[in-house]
Structure formats: C-alpha cells, structure tokens
Amino acid sequence: MNSRLALRRQLAKFQGQTPTGFVHDGWATSRLPFNVRNKWAFAIKATLFLAIGFWAPFIVVEYQLRKANQ
Question: Residue 65 domain-assigned?
Fold first, then answer.
C-alpha cells in the first residue's frame, strides 16, 4: 500500500521534458544550424548534399558489380 502511495506522489510531481523557454530573436531562420542568408548558395549546397546522399548507394552498387565481373 505504501509503495502505491509513493508511486502516486512521484507521478504527481513528474514534469515533462518540455522546454519552458528559448531564445528566439524573431527571425524564421534563427534556430537553424546553418546560414541561409544567401539563398542561391544554400540552394546549391542543399541540392549537392541531397543528390550525393541519393546517388551514393547506386554508385557503390555499380562499383561492386563491376569489381565482381572482372
């Protein structure tokens, strides 16, 4: 019985891990880990990053298949 009471008290004290506040300077990009002030440079970098991530498995498979056929 005491363990149930202790558990209930513990649950009543529990507060989630929701942040109570954060620094926000009003800009939409203020919390991003990269700079997007130059939209063309960002577009090129993002496109290259996504293209490399997409095509890398296909390139690796092609390389392995060519290596196996030699």
Answer: yes
Per-residue pLDDT at 25 = 63
**pLDDT tens-place string over residues 1-23:** 677 777 666 666 656 666 556 66
Q: If 0-12 CB within 10 Å is exposed, 13-18 middle and 19+ buried, where does residue 20 land?
A: exposed
Global model pTM greater than 0.70: no
Residues in the chain: 70
Domain count, the chain: 1
8 A C-beta contact, residue 42 and residue 36: yes
Report how far apart, in Å, the C-alpha atoms of 39 and of each of 2, 3, 32 are: 62, 59, 14
- What is the residue range of 62's domain? 36-70
